[in-house]
Design goal:
Layout lengths: L15 E5 L4 H5 L2 H10 L4 E7 L14 E5 L5 H11 L4 E6 L4 H9 L2 E7 L10 E3 L11 H10 L18 H13 L7 E5 L11 H11 L6 E5 L5 H9 L6 E2 L6 H9 L3 E5 L2 H7 L5 E5 L4 H4 L6 E5 L18 H4 L3 H8 L4
Parallel strand pairs: 1-2, 1-4, 2-3, 4-5, 5-6, 7-8, 7-10, 8-9, 10-11, 11-12
């Protein structure tokens, strides 16, 4: 909090709250416990959430939100200023910036709100009335979910038991689509392994060879079917993996929206993948996880309140800013062997 004085806030006067988290999948998902805590303590308050359009489905119809505003990811200046003019017509009682990125902080700066809460950011101290550090004194890490909850606590809200991750319910057509996938492919609920093959960037890329080797190992387990998931950007990777396999798998790469992905994972016995948006979606289901961590730390981004086995290497170069690998071989993730991951999977199968 502000080092000099802590604000005295009358919660009964807070009627409209603006929440900002523009990107990306996992970051949006990890704000949902804070949203739930806010609504539980201030059921009378109207909560508005600003998100980028590709990730709107993660919060649209969230039972704790009253309205959602989505922005295009590459918004032009005139469009952005028009949005700001409309936003300024509403006098918010409080604004919570869960993001702190360039556009999110600009919205926070230009929006009208009695109280603005955000993170301590270089050159942006004057953007917010109250600023919180993202780490404990001495630099010890805080989980991202706890960081978001701390922003909410600034309002005087007590969060004794942090809520779990929560995604909106599936629409009937989304449920039907997943049910048809299960029926048409002869899948048994609780016998599938969902494998996320996406990387996001080269630092979080486990490698095509490792994915293919793990699939072959999983294929040795009786009754287990492997389901590949990823975005349309992972189609080339999907082709490379399938070309190396000697057994059939079901690939849903590029064919699911984010809530359909949640529905697929929730029917599976296990989710396996790197630290990623889909990993956090999996953490919002009862399905256990095997999560591979490379340049990021589980202390910051571990699957929240999920049954999970985390595999990571204890290297001095971790965490890194994912701009340059000191060893040029991405050993933090690439040194994790398929046999090691398979062994972690077996107890869940």
């Amino acid at each position: 909090m502000s080092r000099k004085e802590r604000p005295r806030i009358d919660l009964s006067t807070i009627e409209k709250i603006l929440l900002i988290r523009l990107r990306r999948i996992g970051d949006v998902v990890m704000t949902t416990p804070a949203v739930a805590a806010l609504k539980k303590s201030l059921p009378h308050a109207h909560l508005t959430y600003i998100v980028e359009e590709p990730y709107r489905r993660l919060v649209d119809r969230n039972p704790h939100l009253d309205s959602v505003i989505s922005l295009p990811p590459n918004q032009k200046l005139l469009s952005f200023m028009s949005f700001i003019f409309k936003l300024r017509r509403v006098k918010y009682d409080a604004l919570v910036d869960f993001h702190g990125g360039p556009r999110a902080s600009q919205i926070a700066l230009l929006c009208r709100a009695r109280l603005k809460i955000g993170y301590e950011l270089k050159y942006k101290d004057f953007y917010y009335h109250v600023r919180l550090p993202r780490a404990l004194p001495g630099g010890a890490p805080i989980h991202s979910v706890e960081n978001h909850l701390n922003l909410v606590r600034v309002l005087g809200i007590s969060v004794a038991e942090p809520p779990p991750l929560e995604l909106p319910p599936a629409l009937p057509r989304e449920k039907k689509k997943v049910e048809n996938l299960w029926t048409q492919n002869g899948l048994d609920i609780g016998r599938a392994v969902v494998l996320h093959i996406g990387a996001g960037n080269v630092f979080r890329d486990w490698g095509v060879e490792n994915f293919a080797a793990l699939i072959e190992l999983l294929g040795q387990t009786p009754g287990v079917r492997v389901i590949l998931v990823g975005s349309t950007a992972d189609k080339a990777r999907e082709s490379d993996i399938l070309a190396r396999l000697n057994l059939p798998v079901l690939s849903l790469v590029g064919s699911l929206n984010l809530i359909e992905l949640r529905e697929v994972i929730s029917r599976a016995a296990l989710f396996v993948g790197p630290d990623s948006g889909p990993m956090h979606i999996a953490a919002a289901t009862p399905t256990p996880l095997v999560a591979l961590f490379g340049p990021t730390l589980p202390e910051n981004f571990a699957p929240w309140k999920a049954e999970a086995t985390i595999i990571a290497r204890d290297l001095d170069c971790r965490p890194c800013r994912q701009r340059r690998c000191a060893f040029r071989d991405f050993r933090c993730l690439r040194s994790i062997q398929p046999e090691e991951v398979y062994a972690a999977c077996l107890p869940y199968l």
